[in-house]
Amino acid sequence: MTKSIETDLRLLQKRVDQYISQYKEGYFSPLAMIARFSEEVGELAREVNHVYGEKPKKDTEDDNSIENELGDLMFVLLTFANSLNIDIAEAFHQSLTKIESRDKNRWTKIEKVCEENESN
């Protein structure tokens, strides 16, 4: 993972911390955070279902977008990581390393992309 991505993720975590730290209540408990995360996943699923599924929105439903719901999910993820003192950049790096190792021969590679990735 490039330093730029790590820096960006850490800056996002810092920005979330600045926001949360201005309130007396601070971070919620891990159980409340996972419930909130689950809520946001449900809202994202609803939007995906409206856009790609067979269920159109009701006239009374808010005009959200998949992009907005992903943003909400990202905010809650960063808040959750902060509440547990987890460096999300490091967590992502560990996950990506695991996936790249585990799945390296699982999928059919596109040679041009593989060569470009190796040169970076």
Structural write-up:
With 120 residues, the protein is mainly alpha-helical. The protein has a single domain (3-89), classed as Helix Hairpins. It is 70% helix and 0% strand. It is built from 5 helices and no strands. The protein has helices at residues 3-21, 30-52, 66-83, 88-102, 111-119. The longest helix has 23 residues, at 30-52. The chain is globular, with a radius of gyration of 18 Å. The model has no long low-confidence stretch (mean pLDDT 90). This is NTP pyrophosphohydrolase MazG-like domain-containing protein. It comes from Amphibacillus xylanus (strain ATCC 51415 / DSM 6626 / JCM 7361 / LMG 17667 / NBRC 15112 / Ep01). InterPro entries: MazG-like_dom, MazG-related_YpjD, YpjD/YvdC. Residues 28-107 form the NTP pyrophosphohydrolase MazG-like domain.
